[in-house]
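Researcher: Next sequence.
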Amino acid sequence: MQSIPTESVSHSGLPRSLKPLETWGLGLAGPPGWTGLVPATKAAIGVQSIFVWIPAALIGVLINYQVKNLGIHQVNIAGGTPNYITRLLHRYPTVATYAAIGYLLNWVSAISLNAIILTDLVAVNLEPFNITVPTMVMRVFFMLLPFGVAITGTRALSILLVCFILPSIGLLVTFSLQGIGWLILSPHSPGFFPTEWNWGTMSFAEWAKWFFFATFVTYSSETASSFVADSRRPVETLRFLNVAAWTGALIFIAGTWVVLRLAPVDQTGDVFLYLYTAAKPFWGESAALVVTFVLAASCLLTMATAVSNTPRILYQLAQDRHLAPVLSVVSRRGVFGPALTLVFGLSMVYLLWGNVAQIVVVGNVGWFVSFTLMQFALWLQRDNPSVLAPRFP
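Model: Next structure:
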């Protein structure tokens, strides 16, 4: 399939204005989310959490390849995965709409969750200086940041995202590879494997619980597909899903093992404490600064991605007559005004709710159901060449 010229407009009505690098930056939101979840899994089930991350990571790779295969046949569809699901479930429009909305609402919740996490991170760093800022004011400020950039146009948001994605992903890959190397080669290493194989006992219910939570991280490396309709080279954008899949798998498996071997045995699940302690043996005193930067960049990256892909999901749903036509209104600068307004309103609901644990659970239920329905839809359309098993290069 040939690349589409820069000046063309996709059949969806969106101008093809995004360069491949910009869409790639919008396609790596999954790995940074790992930083917030891996400490919780270790605190809960210890070294056994590796048996959660390995299958979750590998299924995430398969999903990326399948989404890429779907996208190759639908280069004019905005919004990516949820809108592919609605096409697959065209015989069941109501089910299709709920599947897409379940996917959407989890990304919306990510905006508020990361605003809360950023606020807590800043508060911890300001505490030694006896500086306090009203919590809700700071949360709203951080949530407004990506929306403020988004109303200036898609290009501005995508360029800003590239500035976060390169150092964030680069440092996470370095952490994973350097940590594995240090475990294998350093004379001060506690050993690549535990000296005592005390794996304990983990019930299927416990495994399923943490696998359920891990799926938001491991299944979300396919966000580049959301920007195919306004990509100058949609096929190159889709090919990046291969890179995103294996980059995520490296971090989810190797990075998790580094944390499991080097982080403290602690029941609080403190994100900064776990990552700082795991990185200090090979990054030294600079670990605190680097980990702080990675966590901040990861939060901003996830928020910016959510603010970018959720309006496109609503836009395509409106184009396909699943939602009100007003949500398909887009300005000449590529600003999805009504869709962004709705996303902001839903984000504020989550922010005012404020209970992180409950937001995570509610958001993840919709997310998991959405991907379950995707598998059901693929089975229904199993004779269609665009929905066959992933084709590895």
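Model: Residues 1-7 have pLDDT under 50 and may be disordered. Residues 58 and 249 are 7 Å apart (CA to CA).
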